[in-house]
């Protein structure tokens, strides 16, 4: 708006660095929210925003939460630009912020008694619970996982398990955490939908194996992880059918379930 533009110019003219940083941050959040990625990337490169970015990296999301650094009438006070970009799957903006070294901090456990958590809880317990949810919304985003994780499938498995734990412990937003967990399973399915050949499928299912050429009972660790994390939605059944088609049943791996070896097909 015209008023905000004049406020920005006034802050620049008077040397009010703190206000200038605040205005830049609000402008970046607005640009992200409106999908103006070119403007967002221009702000990210501004020298004063670089200072904001460095402060966020040093102090984490508490820097926003405790400092009231941006206008809460527009965005929750704990929301960082990277969190907002991740929640909205703004891939280019997420990449630009990651390249600046920004990350999304994992929330502390629900029963954490550290000084930061105590301060935030005493200030406003519900708002603190909301800040935890906003962090997990960002961490669960396809853009953030795709661009920040070396192993998106494993990240989804581990984060999904964590979300279910939080849903059981957190007295607020349990339904939302369950929805986020379901979304992660669906994301893995979409990733696997992009597999076009047995070679690609084998590479994915045996991603942590040293040898991708020979099928042995120790291969296909991704299947073992799916079983470990109870990923029923990511049971791989459609993909296993395709994978098995090229091999005899005697060649298929055996897995231990309850101390008993069972063939791969029996798990699906």
Automatic annotation (TrEMBL):
Gene3D superfamilies: Ankyrin repeat-containing domain (1.25.40.20). GO terms for molecular function: inositol 1,4,5 trisphosphate binding; store-operated calcium channel activity. One of its GO terms (biological process) is single fertilization. Transmembrane segments: none annotated. It comes from the Eukaryota. The keyword Plastid does not apply. GO terms for cellular component: cation channel complex; plasma membrane. InterPro entries: Ankyrin_rpt, Ankyrin_rpt-contain_sf, TRP_dom, TRPC_channel. Keywords: Ion channel, Ion transport, Repeat, Transport. Residues 112-174 form the Transient receptor ion channel domain. This is Transient receptor ion channel domain-containing protein. It comes from Paralvinella palmiformis.
């Amino acid at each position: 708006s015209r008023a905000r533009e004049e406020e920005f110019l006034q802050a620049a003219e008077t040397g009010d660095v703190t206000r200038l940083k605040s205005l830049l941050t609000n402008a970046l959040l607005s640009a992200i929210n409106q999908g103006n990625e070119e403007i967002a990337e221009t702000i990210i490169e501004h020298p004063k925003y670089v200072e904001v970015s460095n402060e966020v990296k040093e102090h984490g999301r508490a820097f926003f939460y405790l400092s009231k650094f941006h206008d809460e009438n527009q965005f929750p006070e704990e929301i960082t630009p990277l969190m907002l970009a991740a929640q909205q799957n703004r891939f280019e903006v997420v990449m630009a912020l990651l390249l600046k070294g920004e990350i999304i901090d994992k929330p502390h456990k629900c029963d954490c008694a550290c000084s930061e958590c105590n301060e935030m809880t005493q200030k406003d317990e519900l708002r603190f619970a909301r800040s935890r949810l906003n962090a997990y919304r960002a961490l669960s985003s396809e853009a953030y996982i795709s661009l920040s994780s070396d192993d998106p499938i494993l990240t989804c498995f581990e984060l999904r398990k964590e979300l279910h734990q939080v849903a059981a412990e957190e007295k607020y937003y349990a339904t939302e955490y369950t929805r986020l967990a379901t979304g992660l399973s669906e994301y893995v399915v979409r990733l696997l939908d992009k597999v076009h050949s047995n070679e690609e499928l084998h590479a994915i299912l045996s991603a942590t194996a040293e040898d991708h050429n020979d099928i042995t009972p120790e291969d296909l660790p991704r299947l073992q992880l799916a079983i470990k994390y109870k990923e029923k939605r990511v049971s791989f059944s459609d993909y296993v059918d395709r994978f098995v088609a090229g091999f005899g049943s005697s060649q298929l791996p055996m897995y231990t379930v309850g101390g008993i070896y069972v063939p791969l097909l029996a798990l699906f």
